[in-house]
Amino acid sequence: MEPACRANPHALRPQREIVLSSTASDSHTWNLVYLQLVLEELGHHVVNLGACVPNELLVAECEACQPDLVVLSTVNGHGYQDGLRAISALRASPRLAGLPVIIGGKLGTAGVDAERSARLLEAGFDGVFVDEPAGLRAFRAFVAALPVGVLS
Prior knowledge:
This protein is α/β, with parallel strands linked by helices. It has five helices and five strands, in the order E-H-E-H-E-H-E-H-E-H. Strands 2-1-3-4-5 form a five-stranded parallel sheet, with helices on both faces.
């Protein structure tokens, strides 16, 4: 299967290449469409892997595309558990060791939990964005500050 990224992932890129995905158990897509539009409006190329993406597929696509950023979005309330498994799989790949990976949305069913957010950061995420009004502003600021061609 051909990766969804551009043909030459190491070509000079004036914009960021961003892999966008849900977590393995999240079948929602409206959040992915919204985030894809936000990221494209900011001038980036987005590879949207869709809903219920198995960790093996996420790793394979990231290894093939060598993106500047991975954005995991979840709204089903299981983002914390799924996120820990996803970041573990991504960080297990030597080719993805320096890849910035962020997660956001509804990370639990009980609302915002600072302790869980801290654990996700400790596990290897570069950013955790919770579902609250300031979350989208913080997300946009994070993406804007990220250098282009992180892995290239």
